[in-house]
Amino acid sequence: MAKKKKTYSESERQEAYKKLLLFGGISLGLFILDVVTKWVVQLTCTPGQLNPVIPNFFYITLSYNTGAAFSLGANWGIGGRILGIAISLIMSFLIIYFWIRKNIELKNFERVIFALMAAGAVGNLIDRSFYFESTTGFNGVIDFLQFYLGGGPNVNQGAFLNPFATFNLADAYLVVGIIMFIILTIIETIRDSSKSELRTDPRLAKKKEEDEEEDEEEEEEEPKDSLEKEEAPSKEEPSKEEPREEEKGKDEKND
Q1: What is the pLDDT of residues 139-181, one digit of tens each?
Q2: Widest CA span of the chain, in angstroms?
Q3: Of the listed 171, 201, 225, 251, which one is catalytic?
């Protein structure tokens, strides 16, 4: 049986439209922040130079990625570049399309996910599509955030996570959005499975029915008892019918 489509009032539609504008503005702000930080680093830093923010942990290091996220496919030449453009283009289109289409059904947590992922996908799409040697003087996506999780650049270089892959804010938006999406999916799966178990397990269903019947019986008994108390005549009050019968008998004797 097809699920009945939920209808929304005009006020709900207007509220959803306002939230679309709000979170769309947040996404636009994140996108602008990504572009600005990339160009600040591009104009002030030398490629490959380590600029310490937190020594032996966090550095600003300018580099260019011609592949996908976290330099995946960077050694594939023009093929890796085309792959990166295609991935960013498809992701950007799908994220924005479903965000607009499902906007009225979304919760704010879900809107945050779409805002992050849209900003990240479009941010890297701009770099991959327009930053070429012939147009900007460099080739590929601008990456600059570099973390050393194994002691720093002077300790066992090349070890696992030391250094961690160089990335940018757009990559961070995408990763955080994906993690939030996974968490949300897990929570909803657990919730749906518990509901499904309640529907399919006859013992749980029977127990639920019994509890509902008990609640209904209690609700029925309370008004019944109160009604009986109201209808019960007081012992101290004289019966109104008896005097009438006595008066009737006196009248018959007088006749």
Answers
A1: 889 999 999 988 888 876 666 678 888 899 999 999 999 999 9
A2: 132
A3: 171
Answer yes or no: is 194 within a domain. yes
CB–CB of 44/57 below 8 Å?
A: no
Q: Is 143 a catalytic residue?
A: yes
Catalytic position from the list 34, 127, 143, 215: 143
pLDDT per position as a tens digit, 105-128: 999 999 999 999 999 999 999 999
Return d(Cα 175, Cα 95) in angstroms, integer. Answer: 14
Is residue 88 within 8 A of residue 125, CB to CB? The reply is: yes
Structural domains of the chain, count: 1
Asked if residue 230 belongs to a domain, the reply is no
Contact in structure between 124 and 32 (CB atoms under 8 Å): no
Q: What angle do CA 98, 113, 67 make, to 5 degrees?
A: 85
Helical ranges in 45-155 per DSSP H: 78-101, 108-130, 133-136
Question: Is 34 a residue of the active site?
Answer: no
- Residue 190, C-beta contacts closer than 8 angstroms, at least 6 positions apart: none
DSSP symbol at 167: B
Segments forming the whole domain that contains residue 78: 14-200
